[in-house]
Amino acid sequence: GQQLNQSPQSMFIQEGEDVSMNCTSSSIFNTWLWYKQEPGEGPVLLIALYKAGELTSNGRLTAQFGITRKDSFLNISASIPSDVGIYFCAGLDNYGQNFVFGPGTRLSVLP
Amino acid sequence: EAQVTQNPRYLITVTGKKLTVTCSQNMNHEYMSWYRQDPGLGLRQIYYSMNVEVTDKGDVPEGYKVSRKEKRNFPLILESPSPNQTSLYFCASGGEEPQHFGDGTRLSIL
Question: For position A1, what pLDDT does the model report?
Answer without folding.
Answer: 64
